[in-house]
Amino acid sequence: ETGVTQSPTHLIKTRGQQVTLRCSSQSGHNTVSWYQQALGQGPQFIFQYYREEENGRGNFPPRFSGLQFPNYSSELNVNALELDDSALYLCASSLEGTLNYGYTFGSGTRLTVV
Amino acid sequence: GENVEQHPSTLSVQEGDSAVIKCTYSDSASNYFPWYKQELGKGPQLIIDIRSNVGEKKDQRIAVTLNKTAKHFSLHITETQPEDSAVYFCAALSGGYQKVTFGTGTKLQVIP
After folding, report:
1. B30: number of CA atoms within 13 Å, CB side?
2. Which residues contact B13 (CB under 8 A, 6 or more apart)?
3. Which of A22, A43, B74, B96: disulfide with A35, CB 3.0–4.6 Å?
4. How far apart are the C-alpha atoms of B20 and A68, rounded to whole Å?
5. B98 close contact with A: CB closer than 8 A
6. A24 vs B: CB within 8 A
7. Strands B10-14, B106-111: parallel, antiparallel or unpaired by DSSP?
C-alpha cells in the first residue's frame, strides 16, 4: 500500500507567477483535501475533491483552484502568487462514504514566493 | 464555521513524565476528533482519534478524552520518550464532508 506522494518537495516562485502542485492519493482512497500550513501554524483547509468535483472550500480566494483526475490524483493551482502564499502545502487523502475518517497526509510541498 | 483552540503552545517535560494537551471546539455538530503528530519536514501523522459517542480511548501510552458537554478534548501521553518530541495538533471534523479543522499546535519537547 503506497502512501500519499506530493511533488515537487520544494519550489521557489516570483510574485505574480502561477504554480501547480501535484498529489497522488493513497491506494484505495477516493477523496483529496488540500491544506496550507504557514510557519508555526496549524494547517488551514483550502478545498476538498471527491469524484473529480470540489466538495467543499475554505476561506481562500478563487486564484486557488484544483483538479481531481479519474485515478484520484489531484492538482492545486495558485495564480498571481503573493508573498503571503509562502507556506507548506499539504495534500491528504481519505475514503469518503465510510466511517474511516482518517486522513493520510503527504510530506508536503514547501513553496517560497519571492 | 468550526474553531479549535489548543494549549499550551509549547510543553517541556522530563523523560518518563506525562504530557497533557488540551483543546476546545465551537461547533456542537462536530463528531470526530483526531490528533496528529508532525515531525520536522514531514506531514502530520494520525496518532489517535475519538468519535463523539465515546468518552475515552487509549492506545498504549496515548489516551484521548472527550467532554461533549463542555466541548473540550485532551491528549494524554504517559511515560514520555525523546522520540515523542514533535508538534501535536488536535482537530475536529464538521460539515457534511470531511473537512478537518486544526488547532494551532503544541510543540512538545521531551528532555532526556
Report:
1. 29
2. B19, B80, B108, B109, B110, B111
3. A43
4. 39
5. yes
6. no
7. parallel
What's the grid cell of residue A7? 511533488
Question: Cell digits for B24?
Answer: 476546545
The closest CB to that of A33, out of B41, B98, B105, belongs to: B98
Q: For the purposes of burial, counting CB atoms within 10 Å of the CB of B71, is it exposed (0-12), middle (13-18) or buried (19 or more)?
A: middle
Q: Is A65 on the interface with B (CB under 8 A)?
A: no
Give Cα B103 distance to the centre of its chain: 9
Q: What is the DSSP letter of A95?
A: -
Per-residue pLDDT tens digits of chain A, which is 114 residues long? 578 999 999 999 999 999 999 999 988 888 999 999 999 899 999 999 988 999 889 999 999 999 999 999 999 999 999 999 999 999 999 887 555 567 889 999 999 999
